[in-house]
Specification:
With 218 residues, the protein is α+β, with helices and mostly antiparallel strands. The protein has helices at 12-23, 38-47, 68-78, 90-115, 124-144, 158-173, 181-192, 194-203, and strands at residues 3-7, 29-32, 55-58, 63-66. It has eight helices and four strands; from the N terminus they run βαβαββαααααα. The chain has a four-stranded mixed sheet with strand order 2-1-3-4, with helices on one face. The two termini are 31 Å apart.
């Protein structure tokens, strides 16, 4: 197999890549990395010393590609997928990718990581600020979600791959509710796409590892 993907089914940044490869039926060898297992960790360290996933290894070009957006764009270039994830305007797709990461993923991760800390070193002010940032981000994306059409652009793209984990995990820690109808409808459309549904199903057996209550739900 030409492509080997190192990832974990629960990791939000891995979801982006999995959605893109499933959407285009790109064959790959999956390697689930368990950083809590010393053998798995050391094997992955030899591939990518920073121990950050996802990472794609191309056996034909001998390229090792890290970071989810870079992997998706690389596959766009070399795998000749039926659906190009960068679209005709790649700067728009990458802009949305960064916005979802910066405005949703970062504050969401702040809330999750703080819950793993010992009680005496937690940052309640920072968590409150993170939740406020999520609410502001929801309003921002609500205003910019198209009134018509299924996706953020003329076709399903990197932007939509990035939206899935950002919205899924942010909605888990700070529910969207009914205040953002366009964003909520868009999120529901995303979850109905077969590639997205598959990624979430594969993550579900690991939901018990999520540290907050309630646990994620598909």
């Amino acid at each position: 197999m030409r492509f080997t993907l190192y990832y974990h089914p629960l990791a939000s940044f891995c979801h982006k890549v999995l959605i893109s490869v499933y959407d285009n039926a790109i064959p790959f060898t999956p390697v689930i990395v368990d950083l809590a297992d010393e053998t798995s960790q050391e094997a992955f360290r030899k591939i990518w010393p920073p121990l950050k996933f996802p990472v794609l290894v191309d056996a034909v070009s001998s390229e090792t590609i890290a970071e989810s957006a870079s992997i998706i764009l690389y596959l766009d270039a070399v795998a000749q997928p039926a659906t190009r994830m960068a679209t005709a305007k790649p700067w728009q797709a990458t802009m949305w990718d960064r916005l979802f990461d910066d405005m949703l993923q970062l504050p969401m991760q702040k809330i999750v990581i703080d819950s793993l800390r010992p009680a005496d070193v937690r940052d309640p002010h920072g968590v409150t600020e993170a939740r406020e940032n999520l609410v502001r981000a929801y309003a921002f994306f609500e205003q910019r979600t198209p009134e018509t059409g299924f996706w953020l652009g003329p076709q399903f793209s990197l932007a939509d791959c990035s939206a899935v984990p950002a919205l899924f995990w942010s909605d888990t820690v700070n529910p969207l509710g009914d205040s953002y109808p366009k964003l909520k409808d868009y999120f529901n459309r995303l979850k109905q796409r077969p590639s997205v549904a598959r990624v979430l199903r594969e993550a579900e057996p690991y939901f018990h590892m999520f540290p907050l209550e309630p646990k994620p739900a598909i």
